[in-house]
Amino acid sequence: MTAPGRRSSTFTRLLRHGFTDPSAAERLLDSAELAAVRDDPVLLEALGATADPDLALLGLVRLLEAQPGSLARRELLDTVIAAKPLRDRLLGVLGASAALADHLARHPRDWEVLVTYEPSDLHPGVLEFEHGLAEAAEPVALRVAYRRCLLSIAARDVCGTTDVPQTAAELADLATATLRAALALASASAPEDAALCRLAVIAMGKCGGHELNYVSDVDVIFVGEAAEGVDEAKAVPAATRLAAHLMRICSETTVEGSIWPVDANLRPEGRNGPLVRTLSSHLAYYQRWAKTWEFQALLKARPVAGDPDLGAAYVDALAPLVWQAAERENFVADVQKMRRRVVENIPVAEIDRELKLGPGGLRDVEFAVQMLQLVHGRADATLRSGTTLDALQALAAGGYVGRSDAVQLDEAYRFLRSMEHRIQLYRLRRTHLVPEDEADQRRIGRSLGLRADPVAELNREWRRHAGVVRRLHEKLFYRPLLDAAAQLAPGEVRLSPKAARERLVALGYVDPAAALRHLEALASGVTRKAAIQRTLLPVLLGWFADSADPDAGLLNFRNVSDALGKTPWYLRLLRDEGAAAENLARVLSAGRLAPDLLMRAPEAVALLGGDLQPRGRAPLEQEVLAAAGRAENAEQGVTAARGVRRRELFRTAAFDIVGSYGTETRPVEADQGALVDVVGAAVSDLTAATLAGTLRAVVRRGWGDTLPTRFTVIGMGRFGGHELGYGSDADVLFVHEPREGVPEREASDAANKVVSEMRRLLQIPSADPPLLIDADLRPEGKSGPLVRTLKSYEAYYRRWSLVWESQALLRAEPVAGDADLGRRFVDLITPLRYPAEGLGEDAVREIRRLKARMESERLPRGTDPKLHTKLGPGGLSDVEWTVQLIQMRHGWSEPGLRTTRTREALAAARAAGLLSTEDAETLDEAWVLATRVRNAVMLVRGRAGDTFPTDGRELAAVGRYLGYGPGHVGDMLDAYRRTARRARTVVEDLFYGA
Predict the structure, then answer these.
(1) pTM metric for this prediction
(2) For the chain, how are helix, strand and coil distributed in percent, rounded to 5?
(3) Environment class of 118 (CB within 10 Å of its CB; exposed 0-12, middle 13-18, buried 19+)
(4) What's the whole-number mean pLDDT along residues 21-49?
């Protein structure tokens, strides 16, 4: 008897052998069934070698209890102790699978299938499994026979007799035998249907690829033809009934559970299409309607059951179409978009545990391999394997994938598949989630040979292999391109020039020859610079290919690299700062504006490694004023101010592009309105700071520290509203007020000279983009003086002001110069902007008349009005005039409306109940979308525009900025028309009173 407080020697031995609940294990060992062997060291050693010794012992006791009598129990125990092969197989299964332990408890003589150890048992094929299922005369018996065969596969797997690919192939062969048996049962129950038709079952997915999981849907496609002399109209329904019966036999749950679901949704038209089609119907669909992913799925098509000649004819007929899929427009983009959609549909709570579909998961390897097969399998038949690892090996042998990359991916894929098998084997449930429970992770880790610290080792190995996949799965496409271009290792197998061009075309490059020249120039040689480029380019090429113009991205990268190639920090920044390289790739391939700004001062690329958030007005103005103050003359001062403006425009454009495209570390900005506000405010603040610096430089050169007259610049239009776009002019008014004792003529001359010099200096041709000043909103327009005194403005507005001028003043805000004079100007115009008691009906009618006239006269000829973002129905003008009418009517009584910003005024009007929430959201959505289109056009084309580009590639780039993938520009245009149409309906009601 064990002394109190001391553990028994058995308890200690059990702990040493890996039991986690030694007390329960002691009780089981003390049971009558194990009394004869409880102290046998062979048994304890064997249990300790299993994935879960506690589970294995419990399963063994249950199996002994289920034996029909004492002789049967004695036979089982004697065999377990005496026969090591059976002991390892049986206990290995019991320690890894509670579900198979349940099966053995229900069918206690099935352990005998593990006794035989002939060579034919080591690697059985379809014929052996058909033999194992042969006696199943009805569906329940088929389930039992299936589990018996599965038991032998699992035993070989957990004992290491078979590796992952062999186990997956055996599971696929068992599925093939099971489909044949199920079809035989279905035909036997409906011989009249079987006589009318020929039916072929085509395995797809992992079953077709000979790489099935323990528990997985078995994807199939059914092909039917009429038997000789039978009308097709009778044959196809008969084949459909047989196919449906086959699916029920495999899928339905009975007292013995189910086998697995048979999924026919990969067929033409998916679940909406007929279950069975004739071969000609299949062919017609794939020739006319099939999408890229459907050809990708056909890579794994394999006839497995039914009429073998019909199955072979199906594969032969469709194979040529499969290998033409890479020639389809947007092929790679379609495949990558499909992959992204899979990841996006994973619940957030599960993505970190998703072994198959998550980033760095099994699907990443499979998608990458399949894409390369489709690109290069057209010309190289050795690549046409449905099995992932076989195809990967063939790609490496042909030089289509780097050998070291292929080895790493092979190892990672095997490990991830092993994890997947062990997870599913436990309960025989279809799942790809790594369990959170530590006991489950311990069992999985031990089953994979990780014994020292199973949980920690499992998670470390899993993350390591997932990281390898995540790092390599896109480089897989691009690294061989560099090897082909650089040709550093003579004699090594690499992509031929033709194969390299094919791959570049498939990736969206229009001029593959030029792309290869750029790669050669960047990556050739043995210098450190070329070596770093070879490290960077595989990833960069993938990001370029994700844009609408990969060619431009690569060309721009070469230009930047040529300009900065001798700068020591440039390549180091891209290599070591995780976000910098991707940010650069996005910026260089998104259009012309950002690369043009960058090439004027390439050192600005350093911004991409830091915070791209645009800087505020105060620090910008401080920098510009300091630069102007240090300059020797006005020209140098304004040059410095324009240089800051160019650099910060680049920062803002990069922030906008990265927020619109998204990166690995930063998702796409969900609030597009917020992004528009940031860009509008940033460009407006930058313009104001540039004007302030220019004003300081001009005044210092002509008058020293003090101008003879107080001088202020009033921002108007989008400038005053903090809503400037990249290509907007600066709408302004100039106001001055003579200082005490200064004659008005002298003050006026000084003010006019300042304005003239500011405009000249800001437009001098240079490396920096010009800033155009537009003062046409001043009193009397182009006919009036450029600069007026505050008193002159007061007199004009008191006597002559028209309603449109009051409307324009809604956006007036001081932006540079004398702050006190600016405040007094605002005080002067406030009663005009927000007239007491609101607008009279005559004024409302005049505003409506002016708006209608503008719509009819100012829209450019030949332009589709519905796509004109400024003047078209539901465009910027519609929304802004509607908001401004509300401001002029109610601003006197609603302080929230007294703002120069459109979206702020719209929100205030909604809060005040002046329009419904729905109407406000409709107008806001239209205004934000139209503004984003204008910003996109400027980013893409490098020049301003109010309508969508007509060039296909430019239009696609605008679509990419707005979140529309390749091939979806039609959806983008439809969405714009729809949004604008809804906004116009609101405008008709609120503005025109319809």
Answers:
(1) 0.73
(2) 65, 5, 30
(3) exposed
(4) 91
